[in-house]
Fold each of these.
Amino acid sequence: MRFSVLASGSTGNAIYVETDRTSLLIDVGITGKQADAALQEIGVNPAELKAILVSHEHVDHIKGVGVLARRYNIPIYTNQKTWGELEGQIGTITEDQRRFFEIGETKEFEDLAVESFGISHDAAEPMGFCFYHGKKKLSLATDLGYVSERIKQTIRGADAYIFEANHDVEMLRMSHYPWNIKRRILSDVGHLSNETAGEALTDILQGRAERVYLAHLSKENNMAELARLTVKNILEEKGLKVGDDTHLRETYPHRPTRLEEV
């Protein structure tokens, strides 16, 4: 199993996962043109995509979903409540491209199994995903207001994590954002701070040299090095040595991470 974070941040999110037999996109929160370019940069032909999974209906996750689905005739998978919110946002989608993937289900795409789980975010019925291929596991958890024990149990045991570290609390509090937006981000249906991400990861990681890709960083209220340093300090306070027990990786808003094997 191989994957690349094609784009990640407050301006747009998209993730690519493949095996030798199948290939998926999870969200397309960038334009179709940007998605094509990112896939080509990692050596992937967009015409060979087998499915698009949609985590929730916010524009930074669905901007290019309709365009790509129509261009390459790709089926779209999400739950019924999210489909209800997508109507009118992604353009015309044929009936045979509409597929349902409910929370708690596991679907198989050739030799890749995908498990969905519910998350806390201000959307209709947002989801995270775990990907399984043989003995390997990849966990994707972003757009989280908080990390419940159920989510920790679900995503634990992965070889790699794509995990939200959205904002620095002090940067957010000092930002120009209106108070109602700040309150939403800080709430249980908002986004994880760097500190909360680090604390949650101390309960999830097992010190098996797992890779953690810090994702969905706010353009206005975070910096990659600050997110990494904050998470690193919290993990090392709990006895996990970053560089040996755990590897922290960056993601980028406008370019993909390299295609890596889990």
Note: DSSP finds nine helices and 14 strands in the chain.
Amino acid sequence: MLQTRSLPALPSRRTALAGLAACVVLAACEPAREKGTLRIGSSPTGVPFSFVDPATNDLTGSMIDMAMAVTEAASIPVDTAITPFSALISSLLTHRIDLIAAAMLRTPEREKIVAFSKPLYEYGGGLVVHRDAGPFADLRAVRRLRVGAQVGTRFTDQLTEAGVANVATYESLADVMRDLDHGRLDAGYGDAPVLAYQLRVRPREKLRLAAEFVSPGKEALCLIMRRHDPALARIDAAIERLRPARLAQIRTQWGLT
């Protein structure tokens, strides 16, 4: 029988800020990696895909678990580095990290500068709004609203493409939810699984995930490496071996269907 992992509570804003501050300190004094070790970089604000467990200060989440399973199957030793979402690609390109395992979707723009593994999961955007507002069938319905989104994500691009002019960007979707709950935003747009998870773990009476909303489309979530990295072929082969059972099991444990 599949054992379902209990869903961890969201860290408080104070805890999150402390974690981000710790990221800066850790980035300044990262230990030298052992020869042949692949360093996995991930953001601390992408529950349930990646976040810092406040009890251990270690990275955890569905993408961390899948990356660990894949690299183990590929016989590649790894360590991890906490990295802000907006700095993940630059850290990869400057060799501070070797692999990104986070809620970063594959897009044509990103494919021009980095390499994506075979898909691990796919999803689209979700829209969180005030409970008595709507309906909102698509992004055109929020063109005249003040919408919050996470900086550096695909979803800010989608808002711009849909003609939404009043977009406020934040470091995390937790910050978007806070300002939406306090009435400083009309809507929040971002990773549908992250928004659904946050509302499930920390319900907000004033807000709802718009069930009527149709995302512009689903995109693939992959592991990300530098282009022409020879280890990518081993990563892809391991994903193919694990895809039928193990990766699906990890997603289920984290409430991702």
Note: The chain has a mean pLDDT of 87.
Amino acid sequence: MSLSRRQVTVAALAAVPLTLAAAPAPKAGRTLYIAGDSTAAQKYADAAPETGWGMALPFFLHKDLTVANHAMNGRSSKSFVDEGRLTAILSVIRPGDLLLIQFAHNDEKATDPARYTEPWTTYQDHLRLYVEGARARGARPVLATSVERRRFDAAGNALPTHGDYPAAMRALAREEGVALLDIQALSLALWQRLGVEETKTYFNWTATEQDNTHYNPPGAIAVARLVAGELLRTRVLAPRDVRRLDDEIPTSWITWPEATA
């Protein structure tokens, strides 16, 4: 069932702990929080060389803009909320911070009621929770359409895989006046330019795995570059906030820490 606009707004406001309702003290710099799925998430040593694009994003941002990567493997816009992960972000986000929201990969899983959302109803409803929650804290929400998978037809054409979800997010961004990073369109165009064989060097293809969804270091760096470029193009960030957009980023900069218990 689709939530009403009032229900969405009330739910978002309720997610903010009452003890944090007062305006927090000013802080130096800003934080960009990422709410998303495995394509953006921090990866650890046991998953290497799999790399989330959120791990590479700091290479393109000024050092005064901190990235807090809350993206988590396997989450949808719904399960991220249901598990309290949005509430955790809203409990620490401050005025002037950014909340970058990328979901769709797992929202598409119609056989999993814990994660599935319908593009034009419950998907948009859940995205509004992030938008309203960030705005209630004086932070700026930013919507990002989901990065594309690696899929080609027999003629070598890169194929979209996210159905109506990108269109639903674009429509919501217009309705709510939220900045939109169209990473789905940009990544699809990038995979088309690279072609069938070269894209394999951007995804997590190893001797034992042919993964057409997740990235290795070159792929994560390429997608992070798209994200940073879109943050600049949409004027979410100023030129002084970004760096190295045209520079080669060494893959050796990517590291995988040991997972903590």
Note: The first helix runs from residue 5 to 14.
